């Protein structure tokens, strides 16, 4: 059997072989989700698809409070207004010490020039750049990105070649691509062979066609063929689609000859799926939720994203589910879930994010103030008026969910 020459892994890059990783997911791939996946055993994590145009024009900041690297920009609307009066939007946040060398940045793009321009901004902070050529959602395909690139293979190859030449070489990181199955095995084979000649270090195949929805069973009939083509070219091959946990991932890697596997929806509902059964397997949802909330507070995750993820982590039948859905601040969340040891930090994060307490919280605070004033023989009427004024100000400031700070793609 002839010796296969592998595509060299650059000095600052990472080999995808032998890895079970977190798949790129809208909303579910933000910083706290990635950190939790790594905590529970994910070998690598993909961030959510970020469109090239969203990253271009951002400014890179070191956030000394939470030790992150933030990419921010001013809103593109209201260009006539002074920037000093506008709040910068957070486009991407990463944690260098906790995920940097295990983080793959996934980009949505339809242009070699824009891809290089955007990648140059973040390449020094990640272990690889991955091009999304599989997202079937209109927000991606309408711009010629995502799964639309499967219909324009020359453009897709041009993007990958430009990134390999201009980004991979300069920053010494790997360039990879994530695709879906095409209509026939012959079409998939032609595409994969073409992609493997671009200089990429890795290729992930989502084992569904573009029209297929997540509820439809993944198709693995073409997987061995794709793995063999990648192996011949020295390119690492990862699979994605209905992978439920690490043990299943390792079994499928052995069965189909692929080099690695991605876990998506199962990691969204319980990231401890990256633990092997031997290591204890899935953890109870309350333990996972505690770790998630603590991590979200540590990195000051935007409230809307935190609440969305908790909606995935907490079983819908639990009494806490409805209460969490209605929560409007981290402090209220900690009260609902009885996370007393996190309440002080939650209050600090709420202040920094500008989150308002709920009406019920304010009423309780007002009642406490009234009781204290009466016990002390103070002016109860003045105290009530002050509490009423405070309550009105909270109502005017609601709803408590702040504007979206990032770009969800």
Architecture overview:
The protein has an eight-stranded parallel β-barrel with strand order 1-2-7-8-9-10-11-12, surrounded by six helices. It is of the alpha/beta class and 409 residues long. The model is unreliable at 365-409 (pLDDT under 50). α8 links the parallel β10 and β11. The chain has 17 helices and twelve strands. The two termini are 44 Å apart.
Secondary structure: elements and pairs:
Layout: E1 19-22, H1 31-39, E2 44-46, E3 50-51, H2 52-55, E4 59-63, E5 68-73, E6 89-94, H3 96-99, E7 103-108, H4 112-122, E8 128-133, H5 138-141, H6 153-171, E9 174-181, H7 185-196, E10 202-209, H8 223-233, E11 236-240, H9 246-256, E12 260-263, H10 265-269, H11 285-298, H12 303-313, H13 319-326, H14 330-336, H15 343-353, H16 359-375, H17 380-397
Parallel strand pairs: 1-2, 1-12, 2-7, 3-7, 7-8, 8-9, 9-10, 10-11, 11-12
Antiparallel strand pairs: 4-5, 5-6
Helix pairs in contact: 1-11, 4-6, 7-8, 14-15, 16-17
């Amino acid at each position: 059997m002839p010796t296969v020459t592998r595509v060299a892994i650059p000095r600052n890059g990472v080999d995808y072989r032998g890895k079970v990783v977190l798949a790129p997911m809208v909303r579910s791939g933000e910083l706290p989700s990635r950190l939790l996946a790594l905590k529970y055993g994910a070998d690598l994590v993909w961030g959510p698809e970020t469109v090239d145009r969203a990253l271009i024009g951002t400014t890179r900041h070191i956030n000394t409070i939470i030790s992150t690297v933030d990419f921010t920009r001013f809103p593109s609307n209201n260009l006539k207004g002074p920037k000093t009066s506008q709040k910068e939007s957070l486009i991407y946040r990463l944690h260098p010490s906790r995920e940097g060398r295990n983080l793959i940045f996934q980009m949505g793009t339809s242009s070699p020039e824009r891809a290089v321009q955007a990648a140059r901004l973040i390449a020094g902070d990640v272990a690889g750049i991955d091009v999304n050529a599989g997202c079937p959602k209109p927000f991606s395909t309408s711009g010629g990105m995502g799964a639309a690139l499967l219909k324009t293979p020359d453009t897709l190859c041009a993007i990958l070649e430009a990134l390999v030449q201009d980004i991979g070489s300069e920053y010494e990181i790997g360039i990879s691509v994530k695709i879906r199955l095409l209509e026939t095995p012959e079409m998939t084979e032609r595409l994969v062979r073409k992609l493997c000649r671009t200089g990429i270090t890795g290729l992930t195949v989502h084992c569904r066609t573009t029209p297929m929805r997540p509820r439809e069973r993944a198709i693995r009939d073409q997987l061995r063929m794709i793995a063999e083509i990648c192996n011949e070219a020295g390119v690492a091959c990862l699979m994605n689609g209905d992978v439920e946990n690490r043990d299943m991932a390792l079994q499928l890697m052995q069965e189909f000859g692929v080099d690695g596997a991605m876990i998506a929806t199962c990691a969204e509902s319980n990231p401890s799926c990256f633990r092997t059964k031997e290591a204890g397997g899935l953890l109870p949802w309350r333990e996972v939720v505690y770790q998630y909330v603590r991590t979200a507070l540590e990195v000051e995750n935007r409230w809307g994203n935190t609440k969305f993820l908790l909606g995935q982590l907490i079983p819908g039948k639990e009494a806490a589910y409805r209460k969490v859905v209605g929560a409007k601040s981290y402090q209220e969340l900690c009260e609902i879930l009885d996370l007393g040891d996190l309440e002080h930090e939650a209050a600090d994060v709420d202040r920094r994010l500008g989150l308002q307490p709920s009406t019920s919280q304010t009423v309780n605070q007002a009642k406490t103030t009234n009781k204290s004033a009466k016990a002390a023989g103070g002016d109860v009427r003045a105290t009530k008026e002050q509490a009423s004024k405070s309550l009105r100000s909270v109502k005017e400031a609601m709803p408590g969910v702040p504007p979206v700070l990032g770009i969800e793609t």
